[in-house]
């Protein structure tokens, strides 16, 4: 039995619904080319800023294979670098996603203008980096976030999405989901790492990472239940008018299937890609196909949001 894994985000089509999540394996041209050669369904770039950045002091990443804590601090090679190399990735025939983060509303505008006329197929506006010392997360200021997105969307025909942090109140999700639909935003990527997590080494009586008092973004299996609930509620409040990319704790084929049932059109892999490397895409694809065959499902897309409530 053949299984069709094709999906789409807005009018963009994908052979496979399994992507890297921005931040992992996507900072250098070498890594981006490896994504191109892999079984990943798209190439999502590291979030880029106006100028190149070294990021926060090390150690700034910790993983015990199940969870991760990071306080990378947006290390990246700058928008001019990514705008220059993007044309070298067209040959892989996969949708190319820029990811941008400004330190002000004006910088978001400036960054978008830089990537808008480059061969990126989509732009993910990152409003949720948790690790900028002394800075707030834009996405928790919903009015400002919608203003930034509205201005960007009005300038372009490109597919535009937003990367969001977890919210802890249904009314916040309702406000932002309805706002995104009003503006015509094409997709939301849910979720960025949980902003405030830490791991303590009790033997050394120390934190595992250095920046920001050892507190950084939590990823991995601990955040999957949080992310799934965000997907379900964003789908509900957007009335299915917003395509969703699910990120958080995906480690096996059944995790992907759960995200699809919850309402995601595709998924992004972060902690597991960091731990396992580029081969993770073919493993997850094979595991997903196995599940679909066992369930006698021929077309994955038909199961998006098919979750039954009890
Ligand atoms: O670079 C980072 O510290 C970082 C970013 Br931009 C992000 O969006 N999410 C994250 O967990 N780390």
Structural notes for this entry:
- The structure is a single chain.
- By secondary structure, the protein is of the alpha/beta class.
- It contains 9 helices and 16 strands.
- A hairpin with a 2-residue loop joins strand 1 (7-9) and strand 2 (12-14).
- Helix 4 runs parallel beside helix 5 and helix 5 (170-183) packs across helix 6.
- The longest helix has 15 residues, at 280-294.
- It is globular and about 50 Å long.
- The mean pLDDT is 97.
- The site of ligand RRO has 16 residues, from loops.
Offer a few descriptive terms.
16 strands, 9 helices, four-stranded antiparallel sheet, globular, eight-stranded parallel sheet, binds ligand RRO, 310 residues, alpha/beta
SSE layout and pairings?
Elements: E1 7-9, E2 12-14, E3 18-20, H1 29-37, E4 43-44, E5 61-63, E6 67-70, H2 79-85, E7 96-100, H3 105-116, E8 122-126, H4 142-154, E9 159-164, H5 170-183, E10 187-190, E11 194-197, E12 200-201, E13 206-207, E14 216-220, H6 224-237, E15 243-247, H7 253-262, E16 266-269, H8 271-276, H9 280-294
Parallel strand pairs: 3-16, 4-7, 7-8, 8-9, 9-10, 10-15, 15-16
Antiparallel strand pairs: 1-2, 5-6, 6-14, 11-14, 12-13
Helix pairs in contact: 3-4, 4-5, 5-6, 7-9
Bound molecules: ligand RRO.
